[in-house]
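About this split. The held-out portion is used to measure sequence recovery: a designer receives only the structure tokens and must propose an amino acid at every position. Recovery is the fraction of positions where the proposal matches the reference. Here is one held-out target exactly as it appears in the evaluation file.
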């Protein structure tokens, strides 16, 4: 997106359920709060743009809440980010115990975004904890290891064996992002 309008300040971009892109435009001379205390902020002109490909037609977003738990599991592999995030939220709302084993398996056998979405869903469904943490701390995907370390740390209380496992991982972890979560 290009413009000659000096007030155009896109601050967020999201994909929509129908494939369009939504752009939040701050629409101000500055994009920070540096001079707000002086009253130099425009609260009236922010806007949201919806962008879609030429010739694309607007379609009603699907109601993923009507899907079964198994169908939501499949949506975690969708190329559409909105579908993946909505499926993830619904799994978190439902906390389906029957999906814990399939989610763990999907995470273990997948790579990239699918592995990460499956891991997040596993956690939201109540299926991630110290008992299965070693498998995810050894996952080939950096982001899965990172989030496993972070979620364990967020609990602020670990068994001695898990704490020792995290210390061992910190000594040999090649990815700085994972080491920062371990710290």
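Reference sequence for scoring:
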């Amino acid at each position: 997106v290009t413009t000659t309008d000096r007030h155009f300040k896109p601050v967020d971009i999201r994909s929509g359920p129908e494939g369009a892109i939504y752009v939040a435009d701050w629409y101000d001379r500055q994009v920070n709060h540096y001079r707000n205390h002086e009253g130099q902020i425009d609260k009236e002109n922010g806007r949201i743009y919806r962008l879609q490909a030429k010739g694309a037609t607007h379609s009603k977003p699907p109601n993923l809440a009507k899907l079964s738990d198994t169908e939501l599991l499949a949506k975690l592999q969708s190329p559409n980010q909105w579908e993946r995030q909505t499926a993830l939220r619904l799994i978190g709302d439902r906390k389906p115990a029957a999906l814990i084993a399939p989610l763990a398996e999907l995470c273990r056998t997948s790579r990239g975004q699918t592995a990460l979405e499956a891991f997040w869903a596993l956690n939201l469904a109540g299926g991630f904890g110290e008992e299965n943490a070693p498998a995810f701390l050894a996952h080939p995907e950096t982001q899965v290891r990172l989030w496993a370390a972070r979620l364990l740390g967020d609990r602020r209380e670990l068994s001695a064996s898990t704490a020792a496992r995290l210390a061992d991982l910190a000594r040999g972890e090649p990815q700085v992002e994972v080491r920062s979560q371990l710290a």
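Annotator remark: Helices lie at 69-75, 81-94, 100-109, 112-124, 133-137, 142-154, 160-172, 176-182.
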